[in-house]
Amino acid sequence: MEQWFPIIFSYLFIFFARVADMSLDVVRILMLMRDRRAWAAVIGFFEVSIFVLALNEVLKGGLDDPGKIIAYAGGFATGNFLGSVIESKLAIGFLSIHIVPPREMVEEFTRLMREEGFGITSVQGCGRDGARTMLFVMIKRKDLHRALNLVNSICPNAFFNVSDARSIHGGVFPMKKGK
């Protein structure tokens, strides 16, 4: 029985090391996309250190053990998933929401979004059916669900899209309650 402990430990080490390094990889890429190079470098240092240790364990004794490959691949996949969960919880950065509400609801959209503290800019445009008003709202990523819930409560059929904003300067953003 004791002969299995090193093998099982090896599989678990490989799996959890890959989970850790791939989770760090996802967060590092997020930091690069958000122009936080110093954080990305620090995270990258730990990420590659863990990767080298995991790869060393996989290559010990050759590639004859399919359990090591399964542990490596499983850790890779799980790490990607876990990294995306961590990334969504961190919610670092800003988003831009472009809303094209029905003509008769533009004022209500604008008023309610502003009452909730969101900065909103309206621009006149021309669509397939004539003149339309487009509303632009810049938000912190962590406010996305709140903003979309508000949009959907005002008009569930409103057209909108959400896009990533790499960097912004100035603007109006909701303050935390109690400040």
Q: Could you list some keywords that capture this structure?
A:
alpha+beta; Alpha-Beta Plaits; 2 domains
Spell out the blueprint of helices and strands.
Layout: H1 4-33, H2 37-59, H3 66-90, E1 94-100, H4 106-115, E2 120-127, E3 130-140, H5 144-154, E4 159-165
Antiparallel strand pairs: 1-3, 1-4, 2-3
Detailed description of the structure:
The chain has 179 residues and is of the alpha+beta class. Helix content is 55%, strand content 18%. The protein has five helices and four strands; from the N terminus they run αααβαββαβ. Strands 2-3-1-4 form a four-stranded antiparallel β-sheet, covered by helices on one side. α1 packs parallel to α3. The longest helix is centred in the first third of the chain and has 30 residues. The chain starts with a helix and ends in a 14-residue tail after the last strand. The mean pLDDT is 88.
- Overall pLDDT: 88
The largest beta-sheet arranges its strands as 2-3-1-4
Label the overall shape: elongated
Helical stretch tally: 5
How far do the termini sit from each other? 61 Å
The gyration radius over C-alpha positions equals 24 Å
Summed up, the domain count is 2
Which consecutive residue ranges, at least 5 long each, have pLDDT under 50?
A: none
> Would you report the number of β strands?
4
Percent of sequence in beta strands: 15-25%
Order of helices and strands: HHHEHEEHE
| Percent in helix | 55-70%
Structural class: alpha+beta
Most strands sheet? 4 strands, antiparallel
